[in-house]
Design goal:
By secondary structure, the protein is of the alpha+beta class. The chain contains six helices and four strands.
Length: 162
């Protein structure tokens, strides 16, 4: 991963790709006034530097029968820095994110399941099978107003323009 400052042209390319990763290089080049080969080279460098980490398709969770979204706060008896509990949690089907957090709990876990019955089964059978988990608290999402994995780039623009 690069700690390098991203220049304005690369930032423009990132903003365009963030909105539509399937956009051809020729169209990106047209939008920012560069040659397609120069855009291709910039994108390759951004990938090599680890700035662009991959491309994903956003799939409607309902199409996969995963309509229920919940967040599980996990308390553990783990006192080691190996994060073995986190590794075990991350292997559970339906777990989307595992975050090591500060505060009373050890981890915040984002999960998707079909319904409350399958969520209960996941908590009992999968989370319950992990010996180091001492407690969980679950928050079921009623409605999602905003959900994105796109990182905001306005902070970078603001810092560059000082």
């Amino acid at each position: 991963m690069s700690d390098r400052i991203i220049d304005g042209v690369s930032l423009q390319i990132l903003n365009i790709i963030r909105q539509n990763a399937k956009l051809p290089n020729a169209e990106i080049a047209r939008q920012i006034g560069m040659a397609p080969s120069a855009v291709l080279e910039r994108v390759r460098k951004l990938e090599e530097q680890g700035i662009i980490q991959g491309y994903i398709a956003q799939i409607n969770p309902r199409a996969l029968n995963l309509a229920l979204l919940a967040f599980v706060s996990v308390s553990t008896s783990d006192r080691t820095s190996k994060m073995t509990t986190a590794k075990q949690i991350s292997k559970i089907p339906g777990v989307l994110e595992v975050h090591h957090i500060a505060g009373e709990d050890s981890y915040l876990v984002k999960v998707r399941t079909a319904d409350t019955e399958s969520l209960g089964r996941m908590l009992r059978e999968d989370f319950g099978a992990i010996k180091s988990i001492s407690a969980t608290r679950t928050t079921v999402v009623l409605e999602t107003i905003l959900e994105t994995s796109a990182l905001p780039t306005h902070n970078v623009e603001r810092e560059k323009n000082g």
